[in-house]
# Entry
Amino acid sequence: MLNDNRIRIIVGHYGSGKTEFAVNYAVRLSELGKKVVLADLDVVNPYFRSREKADELENLGIKVIGSSIKGNAVDVPSVSAEIYGPLQDESVEAVLDVGGDPAGARALGRYHSFFEAGKYDMFFVVNANRPETQTLENVEKYIRDIERASRAKVTGLINNTHLLKSTSLEDVLYGQKLVEEVSATLNIPVKYVSALEHVAKELPQDIKGEIFPLNLFMREDWML
# Structure
């Protein structure tokens, strides 16, 4: 489980749930006894940023790196120089939460010298219920644009098709068809199928990709 390269980059369009997945992934690694750093490189989206949960995550043993300007509510396009630490330290499991479009991916491009083929993974999170990623053509365009901006290659796909807390099994299976189509067309493997725990339990065990149950860290109890 989570048998991926040491540096994991999580990308995806706004609303795909990439930050929720990144946080859950980091928590799962920590539960496995790993030394984990979660780096928030999302300098575009002012909402649902992983650094907003820094205190909670650090209580779970996860170091969080965010803006070089302290203050969770400060929306500035600035990433702490601390990011170089986990990129260089091979004893650390690094999870990078990257901005959800090509503009956001450019923040990642400055670190491209650390992304040696076969030593990192970049996972593209797909929510087939988002208008911008409902078709093969649109998903392919986003992947190519992000690869170009970040100067790194997508190595795996994540089906995270959801309707927040209203997500059903049918929603996830609907997204799976699109993700498998993207996988076949671009020759990129389906790595994970992520869903809320009660939905994940209903997924067929032979589904393409590892089933990844999610907890909602980024949405407060009162949110839909």
